[in-house]
Amino acid sequence: MSQSIWKKMLSLDDLNAFSSSTMVELLGIVFTEISDECLVATMPVDERTQQPFGLLHGGASAALLETLGSVAATAASEENEYCVGVELNINHVRAKRNGTVTGTTSPVHIGKTIQVWTVDICDESGSLISTGRLTLAVRKNLPGSEKA
């Protein structure tokens, strides 16, 4: 049995509530699964996430990728730490017109100052739509705290 990478308690209800009234909610991103080693979320492919030709917008895929990586990295950090993205790389390998995509993130490196996470975004049949990597800086004192 593997040990969990999470240093903060996670619940799907809390993650989805935390995203209320943000771009995450606007795009319809919903956290759906937490395992000891990864975090999963879905996003609809509809008028909110399509570009003018009716295809899944690359920016929407990038938003799903950065959302998953940022939330996972922060949850894998110490209690007084949070993570912010410093570099995002995404490759779009297949078009998607409608339905739902699912992003799964897992760590490449969880360090004291830098974290690197990969995210694969797949369609309902498991075909890869996009894949990418997010590098994040680990920061002390959550926003809103006295020393932020």
Please, could you describe this protein's structure?
The protein starts with 11 loop residues before the first helix and ends in an 8-residue tail after the last strand. The mean pLDDT is 94. With 148 residues, the chain is α+β, with helices and mostly antiparallel strands. The protein has helices at residues 12-18, 23-26, 58-75, and strands spanning 30-34, 39-45, 81-92, 99-110, 114-122, 128-140. The protein is globular, with a radius of gyration of 15 Å. A six-stranded antiparallel β-sheet has the order 1-2-4-5-6-3. It has a single domain (12-140), classed as Hotdog Thioesterase (Thiol Ester Dehydrase, Chain A), CATH 3.10.129.
Task: Count helical runs.
Answer: 3
Low-confidence stretches: none
CATH-assigned homologous superfamily: Hotdog Thioesterase
Largest sheet: 6 strands, antiparallel
The strand count comes to 6
* Binned strand content: 35-45%
The SSE order reads HHEEHEEEE
User: Span from first to last CA?
Assistant: 37 Å
Strand order of the largest sheet: 1-2-4-5-6-3
State the name of the first-level CATH class.
Alpha Beta
CATH topology (level 3) name? Thiol Ester Dehydrase, Chain A
Instruction: Tell the overall outline.
Output: globular
Mean pLDDT: 94
What oligomerization state is this entry in? Answer: single chain
Structural class: alpha+beta
As a whole number of angstroms, the C-alpha radius of gyration is: 15 Å
Helix fraction, binned, reads 10-25%
The count of domains is: 1
The CATH architecture is Roll
